[in-house]
């Protein structure tokens, strides 16, 4: 399977899964090593225009898969490439990390029904809030 073509079981999944496309499926430049079943990480773009976000979502049973290469190097490169712009986060269940150019901050576990929202400002200031999920 080549990058950007999707996985062979994608069409056999429930409708909600068939409508979701991770970054590996959307970006043909990402190598096979980034494929979720290989890396154990799903890369997702999100946020909004003011706070674009790149998220690495891991199965809670493999919570630190985002720290393995080549995913970790890619995430750190993204955090460095857009200071004051792209927010890079990693998730394992409700456990959440914020990846900054010079450190990785563990934010903790978001309570049920809430998520961490990170606002990174052009001046380098970072605000972290708990907000209702959805």
Q: What's this, in brief?
A:
Helices cover 17% and strands 34% of the residues. With 134 residues, it is of the alpha+beta class. The strands form two sheets. Strands 1-2-3-4-5 form a five-stranded mixed sheet. A two-stranded antiparallel ribbon has the order 6-7.
Radius of gyration over alpha carbons?
A: 15 Å
What general outline do the C-alpha atoms trace? Answer: globular
Report the biggest beta sheet as strand number plus sense, adding barrel if it closes: 5 strands, mixed
Question: What is the mean predicted local confidence, pLDDT?
Answer: 81
Based on helices, strands and strand pairing, what is the structural class?
alpha+beta
Placed side by side, the strands forming the largest sheet appear as: 1-2-3-4-5
Number of helices: 4
Please mark out the parts with pLDDT under 50 across 5 or more consecutive residues, or reply none: 1-5
Strand content: 25-35%
Distance between the termini: 33 Å
Assembly state of the chains shown: single chain
Q: How many strand units?
A: 7
Q: Roughly what percent helix?
A: 10-25%
Q: How do the helices and strands follow one another from N- to C-terminus?
A: HHHEEHEEEEE
Number of domains: 2
């Amino acid at each position: 399977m080549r990058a950007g073509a999707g996985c062979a079981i994608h069409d056999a999944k429930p409708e909600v899964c068939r409508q979701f496309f991770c970054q590996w499926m959307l970006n043909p430049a990402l190598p096979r090593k980034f494929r979720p079943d290989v890396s154990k990480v799903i890369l997702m773009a999100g946020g909004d225009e003011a706070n674009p976000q790149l998220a690495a979502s891991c199965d809670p049973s493999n919570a630190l898969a985002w720290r393995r290469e080549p995913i970790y190097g890619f995430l750190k490169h993204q955090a460095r490439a857009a200071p004051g712009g792209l927010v890079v986060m990693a998730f394992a269940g409700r456990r959440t990390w914020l990846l900054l150019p010079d450190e990785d901050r563990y934010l903790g576990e978001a309570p049920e029904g809430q998520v961490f929202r990170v606002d990174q400002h052009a001046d380098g200031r970072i605000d972290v809030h708990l907000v209702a999920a959805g």
